[in-house]
Amino acid sequence: MKLGKEILYLSDADVLACALAPGAVRGAVEAMFLAKANGEAVMKPKLGLHTKETLFLAMVGGMERAGFAGMKWVGVANTIRHGNQPHISGHVVVNDFTTGMPLAVIDARWITGARTAAITAVAAKHLARKDSASIGFVACGVQGRANLEALADLFPVKRVTGYSRRRETAEAFAAWARGRGFEARAVGTAEEAVKDHDIVVTSVPVVPKPQPTLDASWLAPGSFAAAVDLGFSWKGETLTQLDRVVTDDLDQAVTEKLTYPKPYHGEVSGLVAGKTPGRQSAAERTGLVFAGIGLADVAVGAAVYEAARAKGIGHVLGL
Amino acid sequence: MKLGHDMLFLSDADIAAADVSSRALADSVDTMLKAKAAGTTVTKPKLGIYPKPGTFFQAMAGALSAPAYAGVKWTGVIHDNDKRGLPHVSPLILLNDVATGLPLALMDGKWITTHRTAALTLVGARYLARPDSSTIGFVACGVQARSHLLTFREHFPLKRAVAYSRRRETAEAFAADVRETGMPIEVVSDPRKAVEGMDIVISSVPESPNLVPFIDPAWFSPGSYAGLLDVSRGVQWDRPFAFDVLATDDHEQSQSMVKSGRLKYPKPFDTDLADLAGGRKKGRTTATQRTGLVFSGLALADVAVAGAIYQGALKAGRGQVLPL
Fold first, then answer.
1. What is the ipTM of this complex?
2. Which of A45, A243, B147, B248 could disulfide-link A252, Cβ–Cβ 3.0 to 4.6 Å?
3. In whole angstroms, how far apart are CA A59 and each of A44, A316, B59, B213?
4. pTM for this model (two decimals)
């Protein structure tokens, strides 16, 4: 491939063929957060265009030391879709940091799931109990699956509980999880998926007028809750009961209007760099409320690009 | 091609082969501006990261309702790329369907960036330049000077051009190309001579960490139109100036650039392109007014032009179908 003349295009199937392991994705995201903590990674809060049907997002980031910059551009449906159409679709563009030249255009679906789950996993290393063995999921879509894979790579997960507004979605998720060796069941209320779990992951699709239904008082002592959905499924005030809550980017937490109403204890980058204290006791209840940052898309996009190059996957396009 | 299954890839050569006329480009930009004035478009100021002097990356995003395309242009802007034999910018454009959010096209952004910029300057000229403008001066003589000369020749009775560049050989190379087309052109070593007495002035000074503004605003003559597509970075705005109508492409974006220090014009702009196209503000009203358009490029113009080219490519069967 010739810099400035050609780029690599990776379809969703190409990305899946790269078969990046959860540990590799987590490693890429962890390295990015360390760079962010050290001031070596630059980003801006997301740019959002609200149309009647779709929210379009542009997310940008650059890491000089790693040598990559990039942007993710996705359309997010304003209504929850059931069927084959993805709720989120779009692409990640990966560029060479030094010359600015584009290197790759990559389907965003897998990266979005994997990078979000990796943010949860990196935070969970510092905020969840090491012996966390049960995970409850509120919403059981792409994020539910990606988060289970990422967390099971780190914790001795045995028991999985899924709740979805549509029972059949939760049943399908539970069947998928059983196929991977977990004791998994679908439940009829969100409360059952929250109570009595070591880790709780909420990923209710973000829509313009979310209905908060979850109460943090349901969370067990010693639990860690990851709100992948910007916290919109939680009654924000109840989250203040938690002993410590972090986010992925403090500036973006403001612009994205995350539901946590108090100052955060810090960023995931601070946890990784040892600047922000993690869990202090087995009884603490901890939380992560976040919207996902472009830097994570760039970090994972770059890892996918490198894997594809190494394996000879993808379509070379002449610019 | 099926929505949700494939998208179209258009290379720079595919796009150049479409050979869309400057009139058609300006018309699609004008239509977009009227829609913007009517409130049926959505956009935000550019989203940029500035990791170090001489290096930045930016995303420009906008959504149109008819045709219902949303798009983003993403590019790095690297000042010392000429040392590496690479262009300063190498933009890509992604175009999506508004109703579903699904991708429609991936397009190289070089041709579109160059030509949409000339289309914006031309649309500004429709409202702000004298129709009988016959002389044109260029400050900086790169890609933009070339595309602007080609564009403006088609729409104004140009008889004479003057070219200035920081490096004389750049201006000479530009002038040689222009002379071949039969247009008289003079190369000057004093930028003042490319501004003073000219009916139209096109300034496209590249971004540079150590640029010192060198254009005295008093040089612009009565009756002239200045297309300052370099956000007027070459103009000494700390000197007295007397523009009668100074427009920008988008009030909100320009305000955000003033805030970040990237745009140095010290006053509110009199109008913006959507105001002019939508008829909310008058452009030139007399033959002696000094007018100008200070701009950095409008995401919606990229989307409008990319959309028109995408439609043309679909009809002509141009491009490469990529699986999603």
1. 0.93
2. A45
3. 7, 24, 8, 33
4. 0.92
